[in-house]
TrEMBL record:
The keyword Acetylation does not apply. It comes from Saliphagus infecundisoli. This is Mandelate racemase/muconate lactonizing enzyme family protein. Keywords: Lyase. GO terms for molecular function: lyase activity. InterPro entries: DgoD-like, Enolase-like_C_sf, Enolase-like_N, Enolase_C-like, Mandelate_racemase_C, Mandelate_racemase_N_dom. Pfam families: MR_MLE_C, MR_MLE_N. The keyword NAD does not apply. Residues 160-272 form the Mandelate racemase/muconate lactonizing enzyme C-terminal domain.
C-alpha cells in the first residue's frame, strides 16, 4: 500500500506544525452542517465544513488515529493519506471522502494562518474580488428537509403565482440569479415509481417557468432543479417545453448513474444542462467532462474532496470550455471556503446560496459587515479563510446539545 504519511523532514520552523486534535460538531440549519476544527501545536486552529448528514463525524473520529501528529500544511498529501488509509472503508467515494473534505478545508485554513495568506492565494491567486451568487428559492413552503428527506406540501404551495411572487421578492433583495426546484409531489401521478411525466405535469412546469420569467424579466438569470427525478423521454420533453424561457440551466433532470443517458440528454437538450453535485473526486467527473455530458458542471466542494480536488475538476472543465458553478448548501463556514475557491477559479459561473429561510445564517460568523451584499460575497483578505465562528450562536443550534467544540 502506498504510504502518504509525512516523509519530508526539511521545512521552515514556522511550517513545522503538528495536528494535536480534530473536533467536530453538527449545526442544525436548513440542513445538518458538519463543522470541523483542526488544532495544532502552533496554537493555530483551522475550521472547515463538510456536507450534511449522518456518519461524517464518526468517520472523522476514526481518522483522528492517524491525523494526530501529521503536518496539516501538507494539505494535498494529507488528503491523499485520508483516502488511502480509509480505502478499505469505501474511502475513494461517498461519506468517507466527504469527511476527508472537512478536514482538508480546515487544513487550508491552518496553512493560511501559518503563512499569513488568504486561502485563495494558496490555491493559485485571485481572478475576482467578489463572488456572484445564485439564490436557491422556494415558493412558499414548497421545499422542506426533515430528517434528511424532502417533505412535500399541498398543491397551493406549487402554483405559478407562488413561484413568481418569491422570484420578485428575492430579485428585489439584489440577487441577479435565481434557482427554483421544479420537481413536485404531483409528478408522482399516476405512477410514483417510473419517473414519467404526463402532459399535465409538463404543462404545470412550463407555466411555472413562464410565470417566473415574466415576473423578473429577461435580465435575471434563471435555473431550475429537477433532483434526478425523470425518465429519459420525460426529460427530453421537459427540455423542449422550456426552450423559450432562456434558462441559465436545467439541473439534474435524470438519475445520475448512467453516463450514456446523461450525455444523450445534454446533446439533445435545447436548454443548458447542469449536474455534478453527487459525484466524488476528479475521477468521477472525467467522463462527464470529456464526453460532453454536461454544459455547466456543479461539484460540491464540501462533498467531493475539498478545495484542491474541486479546483482540479474546474481545471478539467475549463479544458472543455465548461463553466463550473459549485453546489453549496453550507453554513457560512463552507460558503466562505467556496468563496476562496471561486476567487481562484478562472471558469467560475455562479456560486449557490441556499439558506434564505435561515434568518440566523449570517450570525454564525463574528463579523461587523454583512456576508452577502447585492447578491455577492466579497473575497476575504485576512489569513486563512478569514472567518471566525460565533460559538454562542453555534451552540444555540447544535443538533445534539452539549456536543460543541471543546
Amino acid at each position: 500500500m502506498r504510504d502518504f504519511s509525512n516523509h519530508a523532514t526539511e521545512r521552515a520552523t514556522e511550517r513545522d506544525v503538528e495536528i494535536t486534535d480534530v473536533e467536530t460538531c453538527v449545526i442544525e440549519g436548513n440542513f445538518e452542517w458538519n463543522l470541523v476544527r483542526v488544532h495544532t501545536d502552533a496554537d493555530v486552529v483551522g475550521i472547515g465544513e463538510c456536507y450534511r448528514g449522518g456518519g461524517v463525524t464518526d468517520v472523522i473520529e476514526y481518522m483522528k488515529r492517524f491525523l494526530i501528529g501529521e503536518n496539516p500544511v501538507d494539505v494535498e498529501r494529507l488528503f491523499r493519506r485520508m483516502v488511502q488509509e480509509t480505502s478499505g472503508h469505501g474511502g475513494t467515494t461517498g461519506k468517507v471522502v466527504t469527511a476527508a473534505t472537512g478536514v482538508e478545508i480546515a487544513c487550508w485554513d491552518v496553512l493560511g494562518k501559518v503563512t499569513g495568506l488568504p486561502v485563495y492565494q494558496l490555491l493559485g491567486g485571485k481572478y475576482r474580488d467578489r463572488i456572484r451568487l445564485y439564490c436557491d428559492c422556494h415558493a412558499g413552503e414548497a421545499y422542506e428537509v426533515e430528517d434528511g428527506y424532502t417533505v412535500g406540501h399541498d398543491a397551493e404551495a406549487y402554483t405559478p403565482e407562488a413561484y413568481a411572487a418569491e422570484a420578485e421578492r428575492v430579485a428585489d433583495m439584489g440577487f441577479g440569479a435565481l434557482k427554483f426546484d421544479l420537481d413536485q409531489p404531483a409528478d408522482n401521478e399516476p405512477d410514483p415509481y417510473n419517473g414519467r411525466l404526463d402532459n399535465a405535469a409538463i404543462e404545470r412546469k412550463r407555466e411555472i417557468v413562464e410565470a417566473v420569467r415574466d415576473a423578473v424579466g429577461p435580465e435575471i438569470d434563471l435555473a431550475f432543479d429537477c433532483h434526478w427525478d425523470y425518465s429519459l423521454d420525460s426529460a427530453k420533453r421537459l427540455c423542449r417545453a422550456l426552450e423559450p424561457y432562456d434558462l441559465m440551466w436545467l439541473e439534474d433532470v435524470i438519475p445520475p448513474e448512467n453516463m450514456d443517458a446523461q450525455r444523450e440528454i445534454t446533446r439533445n437538450s435545447p436548454v443548458p444542462i447542469a449536474t455534478g453535485e453527487n459525484r466524488f473526486r476528479v475521477h468521477e467527473f472525467k467522463d462527464l467532462l470529456y464526453e460532453f455530458g454536461v454544459d455547466i458542471v456543479t461539484p460540491d466542494p464540501t462533498t467531493c474532496g475539498g478545495l484542491a480536488e474541486t479546483k482540479a475538476i474546474a481545471n478539467r472543465a475549463e479544458e472543455n470550455y465548461v463553466v463550473c458553478s459549485p453546489h453549496n448548501v453550507c453554513s457560512p463556514v463552507g460558503t466562505m471556503a467556496c468563496v476562496h475557491l471561486g476567487a481562484a477559479m478562472a471558469n467560475l459561473g455562479t456560486l449557490e446560496y441556499h439558506a434564505l429561510e435561515v434568518d440566523w445564517w449570517a450570525d454564525l460568523l463574528s463579523r461587523a459587515e454583512p456576508i452577502i451584499e447585492d447578491g455577492h460575497i466579497t473575497v476575504p483578505e485576512e489569513p486563512g479563510l478569514g472567518i471566525e465562528l460565533d460559538e454562542d450562536v453555534a451552540r444555540e443550534h447544535l443538533l445534539d446539545p452539549g456536543t460543541m467544540f471543546g
